[in-house]
Amino acid sequence: MTENQTWVTEFILLGFPLSPKLQMLLFGLFSLFYAFTLLGNSIILGLIWLDSRLHTPMYFFLSHLAVVDIAYASNNVPKMLANLLSKQKTISFVPCIMQTFLYMAFAHTECLILVMMSYDRYVAICHPLHYSVIMSWRVCTVQAVTSWACGSLLALVHVVLILRLPFCGPHEVNHFFCEILSVLKLACADTRLNQVVIFAASVFILVGPLCLVLVSYSRILLAIVRIQSGEGRRKAFSTCSSHLCVVGLFFGSAIVMYMAPKSRHPEEQQKILSLFYSLFNPMLNPLIYSLRNAEVKGALRRVLWKERSV
After folding, report:
1. According to the 3-state scheme, what is the secondary structure of 89-125?
2. What does the DSSP assignment read for 226-293?
3. For residues 299 and 51, is the Cβ–Cβ distance under 8 A?
4. What pLDDT is stored for residue 231 in this prediction?
5. pLDDT reported for residue 1
6. CA-closest candidate to residue 239, choices 223, 254, 251, 250
7. Is it the case that residue 264 has pLDDT exceeding 70?
8. CA distance 310 to 304
9. Residue 219: what pLDDT?
10. I need a labelling partner for 199 at 20 to 30 A (CA). Which of 132, 208, 211, 285 fits?
């Protein structure tokens, strides 16, 4: 028994067991999605940086969301794309654990940033006269730093609990990246503590924030109904509906992945869910915010007009 419990130095990422032709097709498709993710979120960051009208708390948090989306996709997707073209689908132990840490850190941070954005919209619509005081730049900075710090600390807890486990084989991760649940299946020790911590973290970082978001938006909807101006109602609803789309996509897929009974979601189905919030969500976020947000579209027109004038 002791002879078998040797540390695994590398893992094999099984990814998607498809024919070479289908893998090439997926490579092209996912490369396109990844390029759109980088381009869309970079445009959002550039517009917020260049246009002074977007130097507000809402777009401050949106810029953090764009950074998280770029980092989140870049942590998982390049390795997946490389594996689609390669027969050697290995990843060393340390990079695998680092990938797990970054994936958890960015996911937790995104949850908290989305909560901060919903709070910002709540204050802007329900307490407009006190908005500049409540959402001062100091408060916004503290909220953003807290989101990043809490996300990283929670991810560190998961990684520390993983590192205490022995991995003595098999060393095949049935996923396209080192997703925490797939990695835990390879441990040759009791992982109940890890499972309990993951569930507790899901309640804290998914259910709790989602409840806060829903409470905020229930108050916001009541406030929107009371707005006298039709134009004011339309603008408020447009901004909030964009945010609700992002929240629904991210929290919905994450809750199904980590809180639904695993027997109802086979491993291949879990890969698709992971792909959804690793690649599709980061790509859709800038599209949702730009297509449904008049201020972002206006900023894009102003920047393009400046370029033409020059």
Report:
1. CEEEHHHHHHHHHHHHHHHHHHHHHHHHHHHHHHHHH
2. H---HHHHHHHHHHHHHHHHHHHHHHHHHHHHHHS-GGGS-HHHHHHHHHIIIIIHHHHHHHHHHHT-
3. yes
4. 65
5. 37
6. 223
7. no
8. 10
9. 84
10. 285
SS3 state at 145: helix
Question: Is cis: bond before 209, omega within 30 of 0?
Answer: no
State the pLDDT confidence band at 218, using cuts at 50, 70 and 90: confident
248 CB neighbour count, 10 Å cutoff: 12
Provide mean pLDDT across the span 175-204. 88
Length of the chain: 310
At how many degrees (to 10) do helices 137-163 and 57-85 cross?
30
* Phi, psi of 175, deg, nearest 5: -160, 175
- 234, two tokens: 């339309």
How far is Cα 120 from Cα 4, in angstroms, rounded to an integer?
54
Token pair belonging to 66: 């764009």
Provide the pLDDT for residue 4.
Answer: 42
Whether the Cβ atoms of residue 186 and residue 171 lie closer than 8 Å to each other: yes
Q: Which of 85, 307, 270, 91 is nearest to 175 (CA)?
A: 270
Residue among 215, 67, 216, 245 nearest 151 (CA): 67
Task: Report the range of poorest mean pLDDT among 20-34, 119-133, 220-234, 269-283.
Answer: 220-234
What distance separates the 2 farthest-apart alpha carbons in the chain?
A: 75
Q: Which two tokens stand for residue 231?
A: 């134009």
Asked whether residue 298 carries a pLDDT value surpassing 50, the answer given is yes
One-letter amino acid identity for 130?
Answer: H
